Here is the input.
Amino acid sequence: MLNIAKYALGSLLVAQGRHVRQTALHLPEARGPRIGVKIVPDATRDAVPIRLLFVGDSSAAGVGVDWHDKALAQQAARHLNAASGRRVQW
Here is the structure.
């Protein structure tokens, strides 16, 4: 029964997928550095830095903002830096 439904709806799903791909809005990534370090002025220099890696998502790439300083990675690094008092690399 499930296979019949797959074949019956398959062509409709393929057509919908093509339509979405052709009409979807393509936004550019944010400008600015994609890597960096945030340092609190009174941070302990001997402390091991916290390292962050953001992978694969459009919000990690900064889609929707003009500059990376407003994107997820730098915002997270800034808040983690302020909360922990340690250097944060992203």
Summary: Helices lie at 2-23, 58-61, 72-84. The radius of gyration is 21 Å. The chain has three helices and three strands.
